[in-house]
Specification:
Strand content: 15-25%
Number of helices: 14
Largest sheet: 7 strands, parallel
C-alpha cells in the first residue's frame, strides 16, 4: 500500500497501516518551510527533511535499538545557539543526502535500513515545493480582504479560510520510484492531516494525479477528526470531502473513513461521499481519551474493514 500525506496525520496513518501489511510506502509532502526544516531548506539545496523524518520514525522496527534510534531522530536540540531547535533526524538525513551526492531517495533508504523500517519513505517531488493559497477572511462579507499567502507556515497561521491552493513549481519532477509504487499498489490512502497543506498538494502534482487516475489501486480517504484553525476553520466533514472532490481530476475514490462520533450531519456526509462515487465507513477511530487524534489500533481496524472490499 501507498500512503500520501505529511506530518502527524501521515504518521498516524502509517502506524495503522503497518499493522496490516509490511509492504508500506509513504509518499511525503516536501513543502514545509518552518522550524528546523525551513532553516535547512533555506541554507542548503535539499528537500525539507522534517516530514520525511517523521514518516521514517513511524515505520521504525519494534526492536529496542531501532526504537532508541527513532527516539534520537525525533529529539530536538536545546540551547540558544545556531543548532537550537534542530531535530537530530533532520540533520542526520541532510548529512546522508550530501553523502549520497544529493540523492534523497538513497539517503532515505539508507536511514530506513538503519531503523529496520517496515516499508519505504519517498518524497512526493524531487524539488522543494512552495504552497500558494488564497485565504478568505472569517467575515465573508469582506471579500476585498481575500489575500494571496505564500508558504506552508504562513498559510497554516493566517486567520480565515483557505479557498484555493496551488504549487510552485506547478509541475515538479517526481522520482520514478514513486510512480512505480503507485502503479504496483493495491491500496492508496489520503489523510488524515492538514487538508490544504499536507493532503491536497499530492493531487496538485500532475504526475502523481495521472498515476493515481491510471492505477488499479483502491483509494481510501481518512477524514480529520476536527477542523484545523487557519486552514479549514468551521469545515464540516462533508465540506472536507467536497473540497477533495474538486481536486481529484479523474482520480476515483473507493472509501471514505470518518470517525462516527465526529460526524454531526451523517446524511450530508453520505451525500458528499456518494457524489464522489465512494462508500462511507463510519467507525470509532479516535483516541479513547477524547483527544483529537487517530488511534492506530482503531484506525487499523477500520482500514482492514475496507481493504478487502471491491
Amino acid at each position: 500500500m501507498v500512503a500520501f500525506g505529511g506530518g502527524h496525520g501521515l504518521a498516524a496513518a502509517l502506524a495503522a497501516w503497518r499493522q496490516l501489511t509490511p509492504d508500506v510506502t509513504a509518499v511525503v509532502t516536501v513543502a514545509d518551510d518552518g522550524g528546523s526544516s525551513g532553516r535547512i531548506r533555506r541554507e542548503l539545496p535539499v528537500l525539507p527533511p522534517g516530514d520525511l523524518r517523521m514518516a521514517l520514525t513511524a515505520l521504525a522496527g519494534p526492536g529496542e535499538r531501532e526504537q532508541e534510534l527513532a527516539a534520537l531522530l525525533q529529539h530536538r536540540l536545546g540551547g540558544s545557539g545556531g543548532l537550537a531547535g534542530h531535530s537530530v533526524g533532520n540533520l542526520l538525513l541532510t548529512g546522508l543526502v550530501e553523502l549520497h551526492g544529493g540523492d534523497t531517495v538513497r539517503a532515505l533508504d539508507a536511514l530506513a535500513d538503519l531503523l529496520g523500517a517496515c516499508g519505504r519513505v519517498l518524497p512526493m517531488a524531487d524539488v522543494p515545493l512552495d504552497l500558494v493559497a488564497r485565504v478568505e477572511p472569517v467575515d465573508r462579507e469582506d471579500r476585498a480582504q481575500v489575500r494571496t499567502i505564500r508558504g506552508q507556515v504562513a498559510i497554516a497561521t493566517t486567520p480565515g479560510r483557505v479557498r484555493e491552493i496551488r504549487l510552485s513549481p506547478a509541475d515538479p519532477p517526481v522520482n520514478p520510484a514513486v510512480l512505480e509504487a503507485i502503479a504496483a499498489a493495491d491500496v492508496v490512502s489520503l489523510g488524515p492531516g492538514s487538508w490544504y497543506t499536507s493532503v491536497l498538494p499530492h493531487l496538485l502534482v500532475p504526475q502523481l494525479r495521472a498515476a493515481l487516475a491510471a492505477a488499479a489501486a483502491k483509494v481510501v480517504v481518512v477524514l480529520n477528526l476536527e477542523p484545523q484553525p487557519g486552514e479549514t476553520d468551521g469545515f464540516s466533514p462533508e465540506e472536507h470531502v467536497t473540497v477533495l472532490q474538486a481536486h481529484l481530476g479523474g482520480v476515483a475514490l473507493h472509501s471514505v473513513i470518518a470517525d462516527a462520533d465526529s460526524v454531526v450531519d451523517r446524511r450530508g456526509l453520505l451525500s458528499a461521499v456518494r457524489s464522489c462515487g465512494a462508500e462511507l465507513v463510519l467507525a470509532p477511530v479516535a483516541e479513547l481519551d477524547g483527544a483529537p487524534r487517530h488511534d492506530p489500533v482503531r484506525l487499523s481496524a477500520a482500514l482492514a474493514s475496507v481493504v478487502g472490499r471491491r
